[in-house]
Amino acid sequence: MRNHLPIRGVLGTGVAALLGIATTGLAQTATLDVKPGLWEITSTGTMSGTPPIPPEMLANMPPEKRAQAEAAMQAAIARGNAPLSARHCLTEEQLRRGLNFDQRHNPSCQRTVVSSSPSLLVEHEECPGTHPMVGDFRFIAIDRGTMKGDIDIVMGTAPNAVTMQRSVQGKWLGDDCGDVKPNG
Fold it and tell me: What is the pLDDT of residue 98?
């Protein structure tokens, strides 16, 4: 349904971001020293706020459609508060460019590396447009097979903004990605 596209956009952006959307197009800089191959990435945290659907859009909806949209927004917030886990295949090339778990990268987003070394990657990202987002990402390589991180994201603008704070854990599962295909 057309009325649900902003909700899907928030969820798509949020899910990609909390799984560590990556540094596409960055110059060759030091990046986390982790193994290529199959990784399991899990995250826990909170999501709160009001998804960025303009109040005038909600006001113009018939009551039953508005109720559906509001229920979908609440369900989206509930899903955002649930633990998430996904498997990703990281290649050597992706690791050279930076972490890349993003399947839906928005080309208008600008990501800045704040700090980068074999043990720490700190980035800031801003996405302008009709669904703006600002995010801060911090990843630490505990060892070559273990990483952790924190993600803070604000999607939309006040009063219609969603705030997401997640803790991320990554565990290397092996060299062979099996049927999991690399992104980008």
Answer: 64
For the whole model, what pTM was predicted? 0.73
CB burial class (10 A; 0-12, 13-18, 19+) of residue 59?
exposed
Asked if residues 168 and 40 have their Cβ atoms less than 8 Å apart, the reply is no
Angle at which helix 5-18 crosses helix 63-81, to 10 degrees, equals 10
Helix (H) or strand (E) segment spanning residue 155: strand 146-157
Q: Determine the pLDDT at residue 101.
A: 61
pLDDT higher than threshold 80 for residue 60: yes
List strand residue ranges (DSSP E) for 24-119, in order: 37-49, 84-90, 110-116
What is the rounded CA–CA span in Å between residue 18 and residue 46?
11
What is d(CA 106, CA 21) in angstroms, rounded to the nearest whole number?
10
Least confident span in 56-70, 109-123, 166-180? 56-70
Find tokens 């928030």 and name the residue: 10
Task: Decide: 164 and 21 in contact? Cβ < 8 Å.
Answer: no
